[in-house]
Amino acid sequence: MSEERSKISLRSGGKRKNRPTISAPRQISAPIPQDNGMPQPPPEATMADEPRMTRPRPPPPGGKTSDLVKKRYSTRFGNTPTDFDPSSNPMPALPDLEKYMQAQVGSPPSRGGDAGGLGPMGREPPRVDIRTLRDPNFAPEQYVAEVLGEATEDEIRDYEDALKQLKARAAADLQQNVYQNRTQFIKISKEAEKLKGEMRTLRNLMLELKTNTTALRASSNSADSSGGLGPEFSTRLSKRDRRSSITDRTALWSAQMQALYKSVEGSQKFLPNSQGRHVVQNAGPWIELDNATYKSRRSMQIFLLNDHLLIASRKKRKIDGPGADARGPMTKLVADRCWHLLDVEVVDMAGTGDSSNGRNKLADAIMVRGGGQNESFIYRTEKPEDPEKTTLILNIRKTVEELRRNLQSERDATNKAKETINYFASRDPGLLQKTELLETLSDIKDMLIEVDGKQQNLRWVESQMDELDINIALQQIEPAVARIEMLKNLASGLKNNMIAQDFISFKVDERCARLATLVVRELVNSRNDQKKTKRNVTWLVRLGFEDRAREAYLEARSEVIQKRSRHCIFQGDLHLYIWEISFVYFMVIRNTVICFQSCFPPPMMSACVKWAKEEVDAFNVILARQLSSAEEGGEVWTECVNRAKEHASMLSDVGLDFRNLVGRNVGTSTTVPGGASAGLGLS
């Protein structure tokens, strides 16, 4: 095989013998003439070949290769026909580029692949692929390089516009979905809140069931070992009482404490009756040991309560004494010591004593350490290996843990109540003076009220108060008055919830008074503008401060009279001075009555008449003082009084007639006979 391969060569063959020989290069000084009968190319062909800047190679001598080369070099390109006339065949005009772009933008290429959907370069323009954009592994840089790598500037702009349209459509769809799901979200939130409340109720019921079951088991254990409490306690804890303890646990605990008071003398001094106190375990008879020698001192009995540990000593009963019952037991229980469970520590002494005869002396002993003087006492069960010791230690640990848990929950509830009080008091310091309302703040924090068919908590009320404070601070009177009216109507509608009603009413009243002060100040400042006065009075009437508005307005008008009358200066002409003073008084009174009638309710008109009468009396005082030097009944005196009465006749335009009151106190001629008081002069 290798020999056959060696005989085959690409350079061997019969054709290689007749191939032409390439001569060595030689230097030329003139173009080589074109012979062998080759026609000269026309000028058009020469011009077409000029950009190549190459001269034609001489044809090789004879053979098929030379014939092909001759044929190649003899081809003509762009030869103009002899009968071509440019005037008869004009060149067509170029298409309008703007119309072409508008057609491309207005009618995007279809997905059918027809000729109308191709771009200017004969390819389809890039399109936005939504599936690719939704891909979680989408790579923006790679996508842009692939799609827009060969795109023109116009195509990139069209692609950008398409992306913007897609973004706007996605945003509109998202907003519409949010609006559609808002109602469902609110409904689900209400259902979740309702479910949360039901689960909380279920948890409380389960805890109560657990407590009742534990109490029933404890009472059952106590009934089995009721010898230490006497026959009365055994009778009280019958099967019928144990069955009813689940429904009336408080009665069972009270019965336990009464039996304990009766069987243990002096126990009520250490353990006064309180709600929830009950006996957890009667540990039976124990022996108190000496702390140094561990010798027996006296017989004891231990009672474990839910919050205390009671130690009672056994003493012999006096039978021969007066009034003694000979049929009773020979021993009695006397309360000796009592500690709170959180003040003492119960230690198992099983591993601390010395062993004698193969058994530890303190194997069945416990040490109670603590109290006010930090004393320690050792107690041992009467029976060796008595299970009461283990049960007592376990019950003490469990009771202490439960007691600490209850204290922690009470502490948390107290802190929560303090936080609630501090929260509301910081927003409304006036609450600190409402002690009854402060006590209920912890209960109303999570209270729900119905507002326009929706359940809202008091946080919503606080948000409304915040909005009201903002309106008052910015002096937006109309929105503030409308919000106060809404909150007042809300509070009046809570007839079945007096706590929430008092809370909302207190907050609204405090802000209502603040807003009324602001409006009254504005009323006083704009007392001369009837339009502003009417607007301010309307606000005060809506707030329920119409009396305050009336008093403030009339007082402001009195100040106007005093201010204007002080501008009248006496310069020697008494008649002119009285004319100016009377004109000021009665003109201001007339304008005040006109404004009062248009701004205040009709039932309040009597207050305005009373005010006008007081101002007329004040004018009479000035008139009497000025005419004191004039002769009564003289020309000057009569002329001044008549001028004043003439000005007083202006009040008849508003329904008042005070002409008889003018000059009453000036002289005896104007005094009412008999000293009778004159009326207000209503016409």
Plain-language structure description:
With 683 residues, the protein is an alpha+beta fold. The chain contains 22 helices and twelve strands. The strands form three sheets. It has an eight-stranded mixed β-sheet. A two-stranded antiparallel ribbon has the order 7-8. The protein has a two-stranded antiparallel sheet with strand order 11-12. α15 (458-473) runs antiparallel to α16, α18 packs antiparallel against α19 (546-566) and α20 (574-599) runs antiparallel to α21. Mean pLDDT is 75; it is low at 35-54, 100-116, 226-237 and 668-683.
Q: How is this fold's topology laid out?
A:
Layout: H1 2-7, H2 43-49, H3 64-73, H4 97-106, H5 130-134, H6 140-147, H7 153-224, H8 231-236, H9 239-244, H10 249-263, E1 264-265, H11 267-270, E2 279-289, E3 296-305, E4 308-316, E5 331-340, E6 344-348, E7 355-356, E8 359-360, E9 365-370, E10 375-381, H12 387-427, H13 435-439, H14 441-444, E11 448-451, E12 454-457, H15 458-473, H16 477-493, H17 498-525, H18 530-543, H19 546-566, H20 574-599, H21 605-626, H22 635-648
Parallel strand pairs: 1-5
Antiparallel strand pairs: 2-3, 2-10, 3-4, 4-5, 6-9, 7-8, 9-10, 11-12
Helix pairs in contact: 15-16, 15-17, 16-17, 17-18, 18-19, 19-20, 20-21, 20-22
